[in-house]
Design a protein that fits this description.
Elements (H helix, E strand, L loop, with lengths): L1 H6 L5 H41 L4 H6 L2 H8 L1 H30 L11 H55 L1
Helix pairs in contact: 2-5, 5-6
């Protein structure tokens, strides 16, 4: 399904999700109808004549049950639900998971998609990098200020130490 990921690479997430779901329906409905017709024909032509000639078992009760008929009639819907789930998982893997991986390991990956989620995550990552740079600059400024304060304190403390020594000598 790389063709689907590549063709929806620059689309918005909502549009991509709709395309994924439409493709799943386009694929699931024909498959469901095909299997439904195969099972109906198999039941009508092969299984029912055998069951009618020998109608005394569990297998025969299953073949004549309304549950099996309902299951065969609902097969396209079952296929549609299964395909929708599969294609939603593909959508998650193609569109959402790379962005989440980028959040955790932004140094190792680059985002190829151009949708609103990847753009927001990339902008957030850039802002985080800028904040780290500003934080580093602020830490250096604080370190420089603390050095200056230490120098001033030393300059104040040194004469006080000399004066206290002189006072002790006078006493």
């Amino acid at each position: 399904m790389d063709w689907l990921r590549d063709s929806t690479r620059s689309w918005k997430l909502k549009t991509s999700l709709m395309v994924y779901m439409l493709v799943s329906l386009v694929l699931s409905i024909p498959f469901g109808l095909l299997f439904q017709s195969i099972l109906k024909e198999a039941r009508k032509n092969y299984i029912l004549p055998r069951a009618l000639s020998n109608s005394s078992g569990l297998f025969d009760r299953i073949m004549f049950s309304k549950l099996l008929t309902t299951l065969i009639d609902g097969l396209p819907i079952i296929f549609a639900v299964i395909f929708l789930y599969i294609f939603f998982q593909l959508f998650y893997q193609h569109k959402i998971q790379p962005v989440l991986n980028f959040l955790g390991h932004h140094d190792e990956m680059d985002l190829k998609d151009n949708n609103e989620l990847s753009n927001k995550v990339f902008a957030l990552n850039q802002e985080n990098i800028e904040l780290n740079k500003e934080n580093f600059v602020n830490i250096r400024k604080i370190h420089d200020v603390s050095k200056k304060v230490d120098t001033v304190l030393h300059e104040i403390k040194n004469p006080l130490a000399i004066l206290s020594g002189d006072i002790e000598m006078l006493n």
